[in-house]
Amino acid sequence: MLARKGYDITIFEAHNKIGGVLRYGIPDYRLPKNILDLIKNKLLNMGVKIRPNTLIGPVITLEDLFSDGYKAIFIGTGVWNPKPLRIKGESLGHVHYAIDYLKNPDVYDLGQRVVIIGAGNTAIDAARTALRKGVREVIIMYRRGEEDMPANREEIEYAKIDGVKFEFFKSPLEILDEGIKYIKTEKSNNEKDRIVEIPGTEAILETDSIIIAASQGPKANIVSNTEGLKINNSGLLLTDNLGRTTKEGVFASGDVVTGARTVVEAVSLSKKVAEAIDQYVREKYPELF
């Protein structure tokens, strides 16, 4: 949107190709990557500059950008830090994080049986991808029931059609070489949404590999190297409803503000933020227009 308005835009991309979660988090069967390549070519034809493999924060700071003449900065870095379960055995060699697995599943040797811990869309994507990469049996373990799964309903149904199995009301206690030690759970009779463990129901679910999909948070590359940029308790950037951060001239939207949400939600908000950036620059630097 800003390029169409005549702005000189530079995209700083931490990876070798642009696309973010669209390229490195959404499986090919859902989004063919040639579509992103077409978008990249359109951006280049519009005069947008792209700097791949460039990390903003520890290498180039936001102050460096302002010093070099950039009038406004948009942060759309997403959430790439997997959230650990903090249970014993999480550092073992057959344990992986879904957000990392989906970046390049071909480099992983998962064996024939995989258990995925989590119940969101990322867990579903990892499960369906693993089956497409040759894993014979994929099981999703969740400490609540199917009706409580945060994943989209249609994604759950597609996973069932693909052959993904589900183990509900089981909470992981420890990761072992041979699998996952878990305990059965149930909904509390006294508190509607509370899940309680059932004493004496511990058991082991054997598996070759474990993929943890317990959500993810933002990396601190930019925040830790920038004064005046505030975050909430989850490490997400604080903004108003137009994407204005607590640092003048810096805007943000998408998962780095809201946490992991859908692409549709991120795009919708980012359009509003682009308009806010345009208004800010026009009011701050009227001599440019």
From TrEMBL:
<protein>
    <submittedName>
        <fullName>Glutamate synthase [NADPH] small chain</fullName>
        <ecNumber>1.4.1.13</ecNumber>
    </submittedName>
</protein>
<dbReference type="InterPro" id="IPR023753">
    <property type="entry name" value="FAD/NAD-binding_dom"/>
</dbReference>
<dbReference type="Pfam" id="PF07992">
    <property type="entry name" value="Pyr_redox_2"/>
</dbReference>
<dbReference type="GO" id="GO:0004355">
    <property type="term" value="F:glutamate synthase (NADPH) activity"/>
</dbReference>
<keyword id="KW-0560">Oxidoreductase</keyword>
<feature type="domain" description="FAD/NAD(P)-binding">
    <location>
        <begin position="63"/>
        <end position="267"/>
    </location>
</feature>
<dbReference type="InterPro" id="IPR036188">
    <property type="entry name" value="FAD/NAD-bd_sf"/>
</dbReference>
